[in-house]
């Protein structure tokens, strides 16, 4: 369906001042269920007016934003839903769902929404919590027997939903290309179990596996497969009849589904990479259905005049459940907080190999936006639409609405001396969103955001990430605000409570940045890799070249060169053959692995096929050869192989092999993923 009233029409009679729905912020670790609920029926408490009083036509605004965002994109189509003042204001499609068929997108076209699945799952869980079926502060192991790792302490449902359970971020089990390889959720959790690398509650780190565990709790409590449980508990009551977590999709949804366009591939009829950890991102839905979901959250549980959830359930979802610091945004139950011009917003985005989506709800304004694209590059497009939508309909974030901000004439802050613990702040901080135990450690670490922190002479904190450098001023101990904006960051100590260990960005409450020191420094690994390569290449190419030159100069004939008795009569020759062979194996493995990764990226990263596992014979052979080469290196000095330079060179090669094997071990590439 398509509705397109102007904002003046749907805001007529709306009061100028709003009551902030669900904005009571429970501190980290507090139980929001016990907090005083915020009840707001649509007719007994007015919402706040939008920025311009409703002078701009809403459909024209969205048309301009979305059509412009599609220009030059891989994505060929988009679908949008807007809820304003708690009512469906617009559901509409743009572009084509399939380029070959030229099928137009409309509000009933299903799109894959990735992690926008998470607030849907969280809402279903909250309904169960409010009924008393689940205690969000109880250990998850009380509900779910899936072989979960509790060595660092038991995690609760609240930890899982706020990304504070301590899980590493890994691709293990995430993308499954063969429907026959899909597993029921309890089996998936056991088969693709992710490691927990920090105590629960210590620092946030976005985790798809954590949400899969939360979805597993829902299935157990409902005594049904997860996709049936979430449908019975939420999708069906809300009327989201064209939405499903089932994999593969039901035929009716698969046939109507938008084709997804990923890098070099198109996925039609629902035949896209499946999500092995389904609650983390397996939802396919439509703009019409997401409009109903936004109504649910903006009307205190009422959809099209019918009550679906109690007001307390919606209020509990929208409260802050955790934050790194009271001066920073945090995480609600399934949504991520942010502040825009003094207005609290709740948001979640979602990306898959061929789709991208974004969901924004503003409880204070009764305003919501959902947008989805059928292309992997839809992220930039969605952000453009989101920013244009917010800037038009919400207050200017730099308008001085922040009461804590004391701007100068130029709208910037100035530092007032050195910050607290200035000597402890500097260093390199890396996003915790990376793997530690799976063989994708190298790819996820290289993709993880890194920030360099220094303290300037005037006392300003300086952060550099990529090509972007920003200055910050301390507003209270260990809390900083941008000199030219309202964004904040804060530092935090680790388990010992003393050393500065984490950096928290207000712009991303789901993942902290951890201090990078010692063997975790990429500069150290780069240096070791270069030095190791020099040594290995000198063996692979240097020794054969030197031998060929020696044979040529000595006049040895081919029969003498091929005489195998020389190998037993001259162990020095065998030593070089072993070391060179180990070097070839060690060097060949990353090349072969990269080729396999390029050919089948999802399988290699998530559920390695036998062909990829077989490649690990190379580093294992390299390790065996390395141990032998280290023994030969000792023997070379005691038995007097070669001259001094020859012995030094062989020792260098053996050392290079040892370094290469250590690097492969560090990055989980020495033995096969099993």
UniProtKB/TrEMBL annotation:
> What Pfam families does the database record attribute to this sequence?
Beta-lactamase
List the keywords (alphabetical): Membrane, Transmembrane, Transmembrane helix
Biased-composition ranges for Low complexity? Answer: 21-30
Q: Which residues cross the membrane?
A: 530-552, 573-599, 611-636, 648-667
Q: Which residue range or ranges hold the Beta-lactamase-related domain?
A: 62-380
Mind telling me which PROSITE patterns this protein's record contains?
A: TAT (PS51318)
Region: Disordered; residue ranges are: 21-57, 391-429
**Biased composition, class Basic and acidic residues, residue ranges:** 37-47
Say yes or no: keyword RNA-binding present.
no
Q: Return the protein name.
A: Penicillin-binding protein, beta-lactamase class c
């Amino acid at each position: 369906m398509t509705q397109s009233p102007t904002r003046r029409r749907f805001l007529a009679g709306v009061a100028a001042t709003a009551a902030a729905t669900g904005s009571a912020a429970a501190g980290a670790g507090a139980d929001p269920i016990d907090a005083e609920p915020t009840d707001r029926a649509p007719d007994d408490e007015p919402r706040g007016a939008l920025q311009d009083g409703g002078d701009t036509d809403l459909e024209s605004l969205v048309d301009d934003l979305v059509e412009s965002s599609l220009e030059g994109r891989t994505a060929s189509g988009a679908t949008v839903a807007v809820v304003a003042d708690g009512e469906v204001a617009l559901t509409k499609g743009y572009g084509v769902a399939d380029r070959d068929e030229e099928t137009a997108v409309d509000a009933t076209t299903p799109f894959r929404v990735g992690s926008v699945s998470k607030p849907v799952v969280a809402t279903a869980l909250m309904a169960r919590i409010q009924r008393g079926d689940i205690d969000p502060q109880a250990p998850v192991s009380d509900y779910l027997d899936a072989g979960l790792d509790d060595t660092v302490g038991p995690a609760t449902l609240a930890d899982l939903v706020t990304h504070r359970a301590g899980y590493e971020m890994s691709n293990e089990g995430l993308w499954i290309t063969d429907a026959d390889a899909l597993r029921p959720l309890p089996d998936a959790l056991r088969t693709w179990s992710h490691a927990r690398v920090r105590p629960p509650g210590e620092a946030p780190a976005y985790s798809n596996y954590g949400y899969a565990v939360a979805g597993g709790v829902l299935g157990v409590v409902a005594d049904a497969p997860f996709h049936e449980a979430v449908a019975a508990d939420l999708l069906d009551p809300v009327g989201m009849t064209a939405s499903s977590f089932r994999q593969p999709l039901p035929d009716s949804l698969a046939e109507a589904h938008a084709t997804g366009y990923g890098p070099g591939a198109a996925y039609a009829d629902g035949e896209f990479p499946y999500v092995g950890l389904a609650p983390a991102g397996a939802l396919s839905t439509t703009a019409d259905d997401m409009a109903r979901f936004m109504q649910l959250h903006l009307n205190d549980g009422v959809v099209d005049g019918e009550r679906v959830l109690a007001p307390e359930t919606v209020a509990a979802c929208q409260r802050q459940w955790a934050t790194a610091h009271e001066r920073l945004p945090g995480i609600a139950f399934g949504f991520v907080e942010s502040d825009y011009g003094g207005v609290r917003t709740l948001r979640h985005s979602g990306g898959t190999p061929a789709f991208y989506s974004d969901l924004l709800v503003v409880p204070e304004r009764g305003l919501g936006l959902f947008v989805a694209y059928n292309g992997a590059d839809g992220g930039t497009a969605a952000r453009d639409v989101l920013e244009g939508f917010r800037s038009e309909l919400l207050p200017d974030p730099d308008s001085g609405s922040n009461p804590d901000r004391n701007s100068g004439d130029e709208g910037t802050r100035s530092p007032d001396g050195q910050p607290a613990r200035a000597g402890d702040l500097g260093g390199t901080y890396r996003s915790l969103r990376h793997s530690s135990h799976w063989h994708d450690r190298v790819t996820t670490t290289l993709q993880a955001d890194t920030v360099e922190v220094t303290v300037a002479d005037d006392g300003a904190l300086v952060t550099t990430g990529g090509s972007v450098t920003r200055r910050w001023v301390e507003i209270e101990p260990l809390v900083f605000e941008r000199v030219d904006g309202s964004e904040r960051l804060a530092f935090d100590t680790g388990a010992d409570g003393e050393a500065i260990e984490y950096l928290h960005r207000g712009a991303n409450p789901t993942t902290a940045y951890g201090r990078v020191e010692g063997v975790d420094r990429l500069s150290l690994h780069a240096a070791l890799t270069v030095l190791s390569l020099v040594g290995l290449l000198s063996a692979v190419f240097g020794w054969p070249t030197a031998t060929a030159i020696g044979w040529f100069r000595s006049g040895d004939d081919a029969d003498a060169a091929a005489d195998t008795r020389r190998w037993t009569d001259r162990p020095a020759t065998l030593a070089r053959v072993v070391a060179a062979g180990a070097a070839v194996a060690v060097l060949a493995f990353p090349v072969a692995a990269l080729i396999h990764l390029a050919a089948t990226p999802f399988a290699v990263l998530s559920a390695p096929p036998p062909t990829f596992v077989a490649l690990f014979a190379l580093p294992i052979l390299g390790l065996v050869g390395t141990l032998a080469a280290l023994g030969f290196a000792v023997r070379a000095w005691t038995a007097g192989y070669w001259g001094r330079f020859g012995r030094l060179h062989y020792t260098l090669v053996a050392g290079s092999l040892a370094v290469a094997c250590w690097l492969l071990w560090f990055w989980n590439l020495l033995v096969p993923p099993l």
